[in-house]
């Protein structure tokens, strides 16, 4: 995605933060068609989220991955990289340290698009 989405980093994803994220993406892409692939997190199935998708179904198509199939979810490879390079076997004293660690890992990933492309290649 070319768009840079701004906002506070949230440690816990909930339906309201997911809807906020969807709104940011929608503002950038509307009225162009969006094909959205999502996993099976509980907030993906929230009534408000389902209502939002229904209200935007003319241009926003949603595809849900099968449950318990991380091999179909490209994001899992990126999360694995994040855990290995950022959080695995490390003591993080507080939320601030976790936030700083994740920011460092994500910025490092931004500077290496070929590495990210390699993780995602099997899904292309």
From TrEMBL:
GO terms for molecular function: nucleic acid binding. InterPro entries: RNaseH_sf, Tc1-like_DDE_dom. Residues 16-98 form the Tc1-like transposase DDE domain. The lineage of its organism: unclassified sequences, metagenomes, ecological metagenomes. This is Tc1-like transposase DDE domain-containing protein.
């Amino acid at each position: 995605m070319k768009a840079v989405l701004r906002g506070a980093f949230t440690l816990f994803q909930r339906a309201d933060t997911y809807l906020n994220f969807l709104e940011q993406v929608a503002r950038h892409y509307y009225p162009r068609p969006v094909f959205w692939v999502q996993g099976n997190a509980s907030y993906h199935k929230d009534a408000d989220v389902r209502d939002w998708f229904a209200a935007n179904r003319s241009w926003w198509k949603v595809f849900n991955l099968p449950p318990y199939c991380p091999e179909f979810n490209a994001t899992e490879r990126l999360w694995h990289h994040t855990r290995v390079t950022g959080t695995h076997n490390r003591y993080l004293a507080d939320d601030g340290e976790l936030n700083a660690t994740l920011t460092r890992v994500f910025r490092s990933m931004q500077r290496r698009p070929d590495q990210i492309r390699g993780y995602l290649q099997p899904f292309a």
